[in-house]
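Quick question, first post here. What does this chain look like in 3D?
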Amino acid sequence: MNKRKLYKRVLANRKNVRFGDFATLIEAFGFRLSRTSGSHHLFVHPRIPELLNLQEIDGQVKPYQIQQWLRFVERYNLQMEDPT
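> Answer (accepted):
Ran it through. C-alpha cells below.
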C-alpha cells in the first residue's frame, strides 16, 4: 500500500492496523528496528531519546501504541522520508 494512503488511513482509524503495514509506515518516518524480544519490537529514531515499543497481537498493532507514535511525530515534528 502507498505510504501516504496508509498514513491517512491510520490517522482516520487507529484500530485494525496490520503490524507489517505499520512497521513499514514508521520506518518511512525514520524509525529503525533495534531489537525484538518475544512479541515486543523496539524501534529507535536518531532524534528521539525514547524507544517505541510495539507488540504484534494477532497480526495487529495495539491502538494505544499507534497513538504513542503519533505523539512522537507531533512532538518531534517528524516527516515521512520516502513518500512512495
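Residues 36 and 77 are 26 Å apart (CA to CA).
Residues 3-75 form a domain with the Metal Transport, Frataxin; Chain A fold (CATH 3.30.920.30).
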